[in-house]
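re: ur question from yesterday

yeah so i grabbed the chain u mentioned. its 650 aa long if i counted rite. heres the sequnce exactly as i have it in my notes:
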Amino acid sequence: MGGVPSTPRGGGARPQETAEYLIGEFVGEKSFPLASDYWQKLLELPLDLRWPSHRVRRACQLFATNNCKTKHLAKILIHLAWCLQECVSASDVASLAFTKALNALFVSSVFLKYLIENTRSDNFEELYLSLGESDSVPNDFSEGQHVANFIMSSALNFICKVDVSPGTYLLHQELFNFIVIAMSTQLLSGPTPGPNDTHPFIDAVMAQESTLVNTVVCKLLLNYIRRPQFPVNSSSSIIFSEGNQPGVLKRVGSAAANLMLLPFSYLGSSAGEASKRPLAEGSLHVLLILSYYRKCISVNYVKDKSHHSSSEALLKEETYFSENPFCKALENAQDIEFDRLDIEGNAHAGPLVRIPFASLYDTLGMCLANETSVLLLYSLVHGNSDFLEYVLVRTDIDTLLMPMLETLYNAPSRTSNHIYMVLVIFLILSQDSTFNATLHKLMIPSVPWYKERFLNQTSLGSLMVIILIRTVKYNLSKLRDMYLHTNCLATLANMAPHVHRLSAYASQRLVSLFDMLSRKYNKLAEIKNDKMNTTNGDLRGDSLPEDPSAELHVYTDFLRLVLEIINAILTYTLPRNPEVVYAIMHRQEVFLPFKNHPRFNELLENIYTVLDFFNSRIDAQKLDGEWSVEKVLQFIIECSRSWRGEGMKV
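ran it thru and got these structure tokens back, copy pasting raw so excuse formatting
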């Protein structure tokens, strides 16, 4: 057997009954019929191997060489499907079927992962997911049926019909790992799905009937919500060990298990609460992979060349993405609290996913440090109008916002995708006026993760303004991502007409943002002028933009956006925001260079209308001694009572 010896390691067991021998036969040249008792021996024997990683790789290489003749992958997947079906019908979790299913999942996962990662064809022919001509077709496996469809249908039925309990926890967890591995064929395709892409396992899942799809989505969400714990001290877990034989707990720590890394390395990273609950995490991974899969379909049709005199026709090809039933089920999910006829008295057509929105909301709040939980929240607020409405009417919106604001605060240690999703969620939520008003009613006693300044009794709205501005400034200095700028400023623009009692620090940050952008704008304007005045055009150096005119235009738009934000606050909520008035009065010199700029003049007219109103009253006020910050602020509050907005352009 080369690197996979098939001799026993002591003890009284016969050679053909040892785990090492059975695995050696599995990867070897001999083909065992589907009905052979070899499969029962392989799946019933506790797999207590402690192979080093190089032996596992050698076994995988031998398996890949011989699988084309033995078709052992297809056969073990069929046996796995049978074991899962037997588990569904078994009334006792101590049934041998659960042990067999767990062994089948483990062996299948290790070798399937290797074959997928080392495939050379676009349609995964190396998997050989069909029986040989000499193999008899089992009764419950119709001739021509694809093995991938058989196993994935059985896996989904198991998820739907077998509840998670201490006795089934490990089997569910291994099943989710297997499903992720089976669907990882997508990683070998290009960034954009094409009509020739073939993904046998996930395509089989997409073909399942809607009732099964809805139940699977519901079960996966409930696993995520309930977050079952690993049954460390549960006696039920002994079904995976027999006598002194080490069970799955020891196997998970083995070299073979360590080699079986999840193909989706992006999904392998987790933080906070989520990493402590692997079954909940696995359920979410499967749900997201299923929901975001897109199958590209190609359609050929004939188009007449009517503009030519000949009757020659053109063969045209169009592509489109087929509807994803899992995405549709997630978008149509409803709150279980409203499991009744709608207000018109009409029942909804077809089955729906019904889950407790309140529990889902609270679970998301605990886990939003995890990127996958942020992706689930994005999927729901972007695609599910019922859940979005539920979020917007919650008065404890800080449950969701605080962990996401902390994510933005720690942007250097987060991925760009993570940051983008948080910003898009903020942008979606900020389109609702009730949400914006609620932000400034919620007071946050302290923000321990904010290190630059002690924030005490700050409104959630003020904190959000501070963090969004900080994100823009960080992006200016490090990332220089225009899309990130646009999302941050667009969210601030949505919030601006509803700002209420913005804190002094947030107001100062807002004006300093304009100052920072204006300095960048002025630098680009100088570069543009220097370039125009230079004949050789070779003065810009590596640190200067290749096209200062284009970047100058972008920063002009950014400056205008910030001015619009300040204008909206002054136009609609000036009496309620004395700190904003104080901030622009304190730094009014930063606006002066742009007073006559054609893109800014109408916006700056409003700002100077406010400045003239308050400056004239301060100048007219005779005061003994100097003006202190407190005195100026109190004077602004008093003058705001007589503010009528005269001369302001809306």
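noticed a couple things. The first helix runs from residue 19 to 27. also The beta strands are 296-304, 313-321, 334-335, 354-355, 443-446, 456-459.
anyway ttyl
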